[in-house]
Specification:
- The protein has helices at about 25-40, 45-60, 65-75, 85-95, 115-125, 140-145, 155-165, 170-180, 190-200, 265-270, 270-295, 300-309; strands spanning about 5, 5-10, 15, 65, 130-135, 205-210, 210-220, 220-225, 240.
- By secondary structure, the chain is an alpha+beta fold.
- The protein has one domain.
- The strands form three sheets. A five-stranded mixed β-sheet has the order 5-6-7-8-9.
- A hairpin with a 2-residue loop joins strand 6 (about 205-210) and strand 7.
- It starts with a strand and ends with a helix.
- This is Protein FAM63A.
- InterPro entries: MINDY (IPR007518), MINDY_domain (IPR033979).
- One of its GO terms (cellular component) is cell periphery.
Length: about 300
């Protein structure tokens, strides 16, 4: 059974931590709910009770089991007119085992969740949380897709590549394959620009990239991802990381100020201050390596097309 470690940040909001290969969609969703509710003037009773439970578990250094998270989500979702209890119970396990989505290359808002589109969309709508991505195509390539009658979605482009794998000279397939292979981070300049335009200030949402889900927000016209890797559990001043094309960014705290490792000894000792800088640099390198690892794991059909050429 999956369990999650907990950190209570400086704003007294508990945050679930991501273990390796853990169900990151659930973590991103629950953290988004907790952070969004902390901004609300009228917090729901189910969230208040769950926050109290997580805070108590964190104090006793215990982990929260997945069943507790299911219970919280079910309690919050019961009474929805658009979903019956059976549909809720059938959908929740999908969130743990892996939610498949079909992002559109011309729209940063994700609305296609395959067989579970209706249920997932209703759940996100209930919690007032949107799911975004930044894998946006250049406008000229989007025009070519329209001209060839190809839907501007990831799955449609993959289907086109598979159907033309025996036609390596097909120009449309070559353009799609080139785009996918050259944008393995799944964050394009156009995508980051559209994300920044579409997210409202201080909106709490979910961000998808390379089969990974993160809680995100927008602050001072910049997108930030919530840092949930369990490796940072003792670095409580590391809360957000700015979303950037090159990943060369500094971590920030809950107030969006540059992260520092808080310790009285570090304040007094210049050598320990130098170590703090080294620690932050190492943290950045770890995050870059994680992103590269996710990119390599995301095996796509376009690689098959390239080999066939």
């Amino acid at each position: 059974m999956s369990t999650f470690q907990i950190t209570v940040n400086s704003n007294s909001v508990p945050v679930l931590r991501q273990n390796e290969n853990g169900p990151c969609y659930i973590i991103a969703l629950v953290n988004a709910i907790l952070l969004r509710d902390s901004q609300s003037q009228s917090q729901s009773q189910s969230v208040q009770d769950f926050v109290a439970k997580l805070t108590e578990l964190e104090k006793s250094q215990k982990k929260v089991p997945i069943d507790e998270i299911y219970a919280f989500l079910v309690d919050s979702l019961l009474g929805m007119e658009s979903l019956d209890p059976t549909e809720i119970m059938n959908t929740l396990p999908v969130l743990e085992s892996g939610l498949l989505i079909n992002p559109a290359f011309d729209d940063p808002v994700v609305t296609d969740f395959g067989l579970y589109s209706e249920a997932i969309s209703a759940i996100l709508s209930h919690f007032k949380v949107k799911l975004y991505h930044g894998f946006i195509m250049p406008y000229d390539l989007l025009d070519r897709l329209h001209e060839n009658g190809i839907e501007t979605t990831f799955d449609s482009c993959q289907d086109y590549l598979v159907s033309h794998i025996d036609h390596p000279d097909d120009d449309m397939a070559l353009q799609i394959s080139t785009f996918l292979s050259s944008e393995q981070t799944q964050l394009t300049e156009s995508g980051l620009e559209l994300l920044t335009q579409q997210l409202s200030d201080d909106e709490i949402a979910i961000f998808f990239r390379n089969d990974h889900y993160s809680t995100c927000t927008k602050h001072n016209n910049r997108i930030y991802l919530l840092v949930t890797d369990v490796g940072y559990i003792n670095q409580r001043d590391i809360v957000w990381q700015p979303l950037a094309l090159d990943n060369d960014t500094d971590f920030v705290n809950f107030s969006f100020e540059r992260s520092r490792i808080v310790s009285p000894e570090r304040i007094k000792d210049p050598k320990l201050q130098e170590q703090e800088e080294a620690d932050l640099q190492l943290a950045r390198q770890i995050q870059v390596q994680e992103d590269e690892h996710l990119s390599k794991q995301n095996v796509k059909c376009e690689s098959m097309f390239s080999e066939e050429k």
